[in-house]
Amino acid sequence: MRLYDTLTRRKQELPPPPGPIRMYFCGPTVYQRIHIGNARPFVISMWLKRWLERSGYRATLVENITDINDKIYNAAPGRSAELAAQASHWYVEDTDRLGLGRPDHEPKASETVPGIVALIEELIARGLAYAAGGDVYYRVDRFSEYGALSGREGNDDSYRNPSEEEEQSSLKENPRDFALWKAHKEGEDTWWESPWGRGRPGWHIECSAMAEKLLGPAFEIHGGGLDLVFPHHENEIAQSRGAGREFARLWMHNGMLQLAGEKMSKSLGNIVSLQAAIERWGREAVILYFMTARWRAPMDLSDDVMEQARAEVETFRNVFRAPSEPHGDWRDFAAALDDDFNTPEALALLHRWRDHDQLRDALDLFGLASLAEDKPAPADVIQLAEQRRQARVRREYGESDALREAIEAQGWEVRDVEDGYQLVPK
Ligand SMILES: [Zn+2]
User: Fold this and answer.
1) Domain coordinates in residue numbering, the chain
2) Phi–psi pair at 235, nearest 5 degrees
3) What is the distance between the alpha carbons of residues 415 and 396, in angstroms, rounded to a whole number?
4) Number of other residues whose CB lies within 10 A of the CB of residue 151
5) Rounded distance from Cα 232 to ligand 1 centre (Å)
6) What is the pLDDT of residues 201-245, one digit of tens each?
7) Residue 52 has pLDDT above 90, yes or no
8) What's domain 2-254's architecture?
9) 398 Cα: distance to centroid of ligand 1 (angstroms)
10) What residues are neighbours of ligand 1 (ion), with CB under 5 Å?
11) What is the rounded CA–CA span in Å between residue 98 and residue 92?
């Protein structure tokens, strides 16, 4: 299997099965319901884990939860810990609804502080970091590989780090340096004791320490959103490789989601939460939507593309309602996924398959086996549909529409077909 690697800028072959394939993906910073875009690395990493296991690999997936971060302190001054705990719960709840299972480990920064402190001490001992006024900074000039991942070196005008902008640059030897440890500030409700006084870790060192704690000093794949290449992942490399670890062998960065269409921004605001997306379009449509683009490509999010995904979901359901016919070659499907995990190509193949068992098996990899189940509607929904059918016979269309809405409120869609109606889960 080959995957595109950001560091070498080409596709790299994975070691042969059984591997192991150890993966670390950067999870969300928890201070609100996650955006549907934050779900993309979760979905891709869970699919990849399922495909690797299916291909005979031993795969371990670690996806962290960043629960100490400036964004959280800013979002809930004086009660950041409470917000982080609540938002961690939301994150697990919302991603659970995708039906893809969970990563093997989901470490929290707040539970990794001793490892973080030990790693910072090593960097100081190697001359790669220095304490200043209760903070500790990484000395970027001393790490010659800096910039290899992103092609940026941190000394131009484009150097911006949105979540770490509160760094007190007056304490830095060089503006390129970044914080590993931050002294406790008035009003911050969480802190930990350290050799440099009371404080808390910077964001980048959290991931270096959590990856090593659960996967060891070297692992096969590090992933995350394209927006994390610089400075977050560049800094992780500086920390971990600077401390003598091999660290990640391949870097996977997924493309970002872009909101498109005025209608969407009006109806849902500029932030579409995963929760809202699942409620509006259904779990299956959200998952199928992610399959329609290469994992590295940016994706537009609009009402139109989501409606299209919902229509494709229906197309698959209809295949299972029609008789099964032998069709399709699993090897083509496997070849598409083995070549840089090409889900749009795999999806196009599946749309041509008519063999129920084979199709269900393939859809199951993506969490879509439910499309094969024509689950019966509950009795009260059937009763509403029956009342609606009678209202239509009486040409009472107002009542018929009201009944349609009542049926939709219960999670079902009623469709008029030649000999009556059909109930389809939404
Ligand atoms: Zn990270």
Assistant:
1) 2-254, 263-372, 379-425
2) -75, -35
3) 17
4) 11
5) 7
6) 999 999 999 999 999 999 999 999 999 999 999 999 999 999 999
7) yes
8) 3-Layer(aba) Sandwich (3.40)
9) 54
10) 26, 207
11) 10
